[in-house]
Amino acid sequence: MPLSNNDLPLNLQKAWEQIDGHAKRYGLDYYPIVYQILDYNTLYEVAAMGGFPTRYPHWRFGMEYDQLIKGHVYGLSIIYEMVINTNPVYAYLLEGNMIVDQKTVMAHVAGHADFFKNNMWFAPTNRKMLDTMANHAGRIQRYIDRYGYETVEAFIDTCLSIENLIDYHSPYINRPEAQTSQPIVEDDDIEVAEGLPFERSYMKDFINPPEFLRQQREKLLEEQQKMRKFPENPQKDVLLFLMNYAPLDRWQHNILEIVRDEAYYFAPQGMTKIINEGWASFWHSRIMTTHAAETSEIIDFADHHAGIVAAHPGRLNPYRLGLLLLRDIEDRWNRGRFGKDWEQCDDMREKREWDLKLGKGLEKVFEVRRFHNDITFLDEFLTPEFCVENKLFTFKHNNDTDLYEIVNRDFGAIKSQLLSGLTNFGQPYIYVEDGNYNNRGELYLRHRHEGSDLRMDYARDTLKHIHTIWTRPVNLETVLDDKKRLLTFDGKEYSERRID
Predict the structure, then answer these.
(1) For the chain, which terminus, N or C, has the lower number of CB atoms within 10 Å?
(2) The pTM is what?
(3) Which of 393, 415, 421, 422 has the alpha carbon at shortest distance from 405?
(4) In angstroms, how far is CA 104 from the centroid of its own chain?
(5) How far is Cα 474 from Cα 432, in angstroms, rounded to an integer?
(6) Crossing angle for the helix pair 273-287 and 374-381, nearest 10 degrees?
């Protein structure tokens, strides 16, 4: 059974009170945190559902649970911490962990909770998502009872397969494509009979009867609607467009809305993975090494912390990169290694010894935590010196040797590869270009090509799933081998043709 904070074992309760005090003295600010102790089986069940104990039934959660539990059993992966962005914050501790691990998790969670509350990219998120998820589960269960599990599950599969086709930045700005306007027909636009020179006002309705004017206005409005581009601007939130215009039953519309709401809830976590994990690691390492860890616990903490921030061949460790870059920022602003004088200094010896003793490091990292996501974080603070010091480079897999090999150590190439992998989560930009293509009710999508061709198997599956919702032929304009192509799925077969 989960335990509330009041029911935590005495040693954990005392540890949390100590860590909480140190965190707040450093300036961390967060909603109340409720810790729950779970056995490993329950913890992995909750982890499979994104940290929420109640979600709608779906095979995807079972598949993720199976993968997680196998990783635990075979020692391939262990979940040390899990925390969800709500008010109050809910965090989970694994039953049976060493006390030093529980302390580390608590300090780490304090960093996450502070980030959730104060980072601007989390500002629009639903802090009552625990209740919302439970409501979603209840609504979908009613649809299952009414329409059958297989029918509902198949439609959920369709929605989940395109859940990434949202506009990740729409909560923060007003998109013109999200605004709709109706054509306006002015009286001057309507062709009417000209009156005679001796026309009198009482003759007006006889010359141009009101019914005639109404019919003319409706006719002109209909013509304008046909000529009007729909949507008026390309729309990146494909799910919203489908919700507004696809011929969905009420229950289908509600499920699509649920999938979209949950996608937007999780989006900021994907946008801030590096800086968020870096921030939590920054604080757990500082609190543990300077305050919370006992002398007898330091070696175990160092061993486990090293595992958390270790470099992994072939993939990026967000804990490591985020932590190292935040420490670098703190050091630079403490020593004054920024600004015009620093940038213009060409003396490498002077740069190595540069220390203005400004002491602005902590102030700066709190500012970074407030305003940045992963892309802006790396774009602004990744430096050539940091890349050299931390041995960053670009690499690719050699199929002949079956090994990852260094390709480039150039700072520009390193930064470009990092940013391109993070932009739109490394996924292609797809827009709704026309909802009435060729005046036949077909959907016309456009892929904004940025140097990487679409994977054709993914593209075909995407067209198929969108067609399931739109019910009319779906077209996707893209670029393949430097030539414009139009991919089409009409419900029965795919076609591809070159366009100019």
Answers:
(1) C
(2) 0.83
(3) 393
(4) 27
(5) 10
(6) 70
